[in-house]
Amino acid sequence: MFLKRSKKHVYLKNMAFSLVSKEDPQKSLDVVCKDKQEYEIWISALKYLIVAGPPPESSSSLPKLADLITPVETKTMRDNIHVANDVFMVGDGAWGQLGNGCDTFISEPVFIKSLLNAQVMQVVLGDKHTVAIDKDGDLWSCGYGGSGRLGVGHTAHSLVPIRVPCLEVIVSVSCGGMHSLAVSRSGGLFAWGSNLRGQLGIDHVGDVTTPCSVSISQVVAASAGAFHSFAIVNDKSLYSWGAGDYGTLGRNYLDDSLVPCLVRGLEDVSIIVSGSFHAVAVDTKGCLYTWGFGSSGCLGHGNFDICAVPKPVSWFKDMDAISVAAGVAHTVTVMRDRKTMESRVYSFGAINGPQSASRNVPVPTLMTQFRDENIRQVSCGAFHSAAITNSGDKIYIWDVAHELPLVINGLEGKVIRSVNCGGSHTCVMVAKEWLRDSETLSCMACLQDFTFVHRRHHCRRCGGIFCAKCTCRRHPLLYLGHIDPVRVCDPCFDHLVRE
Known about the structure:
Helices cover 6% and strands 40% of the residues. It is mainly beta. The strands form 10 sheets. The protein has a 4-stranded antiparallel beta sheet with strand order 5-4-31-30, with no helix packed on it. Strands 6-7-8-9 form a 4-stranded antiparallel beta sheet, with no helix packed on it. β28 and β29 (406-407) form a beta hairpin.
């Protein structure tokens, strides 16, 4: 086994290797990996086999190499770009939380050019800040920097996303009111921002401006509320910490907790969602549980009481939860009937009423506006909500000022993948694609207007539109199927070189 080192294939360094037959050195197999992660998997597995030999045939516990490597889809090279996402934002941008470089309110979705080259996989919104994860597991944040919630080492605000220093590869993130949680690929948990009530889980109070490790391992999911946090670990048990007001921690008492502690009476948890002062959980059987501050009826138990322990919502005893979301005083969920297999959207708590008046409803109420729609995902902000159709062609948004959900315009022709609501802003992620010529009239790097002479060129990596000068360099894109160097923009080229 040897690595490719020739000048001709210098761009394949640490991404390609050859296997040479021991019996016949003239026979070899060249392997080109799509990225460094796949390369490392191959090399680690081969080195193990060289030292330890092949595993016994009866061993079923070892993973198969085919299971460790993501297969390349048989699509065109241009279609492979859809793995990542384009980001659109709408709503209040007073603190730069939209990431578009402005601090104004945006009434229609605007494409976030600053995240064009980041290959975004997830975007999550807090009260006044935004955090994104790119394909490499790096974090980016923007918006209000108070209490260090951006995680960049200071408390200044940022109108555009800036990179968050973190030592591990991040796979998921959750934003609360003034703090954030991030789960690493190894199962570690990181927290930063406000720690007024111990919501960071680091055994002391006081704000933290960069990601710090939380003393809990094997984490698979996390959720941040206003002043509290939750985490699901590998055995599907639930842990909570932070402010215990109103029984939000689900541990049958109202005291604060500075470190993660087990939530008893709730097993096999698959989903956890934090509202500002209440929580919603779903177990592996699809049963829905709620607890915390219920004065608005947002727990769905038929009353306006607080509940200090997880309690199943009996209204949904014959239904499975598909998607759940929680805001300051309301809860929205997509439920599927176990008999008819039909999905319906329900809301409870502070919901829309006749003549655009809000009202508190303590039991799940069917949203008849979606009776003819197949909704796959819902999200709640502080006082507004959003929903996506199963086909991904429409997205609805509504709040206490509108009795009927309104369709968001400006995303026609896009494949909508997910929506996330923050305090007063909303993020929509669509399948990444080559931008249409009509979507920009100038180069997305030098900002010079396009003309008959100053023509458009697409970057093969990010799909953005640039002039010839800003896309004059070439680089192979193995994960997109481009073995030979292809045209990329300057920002993408710099990123690829750093890789």
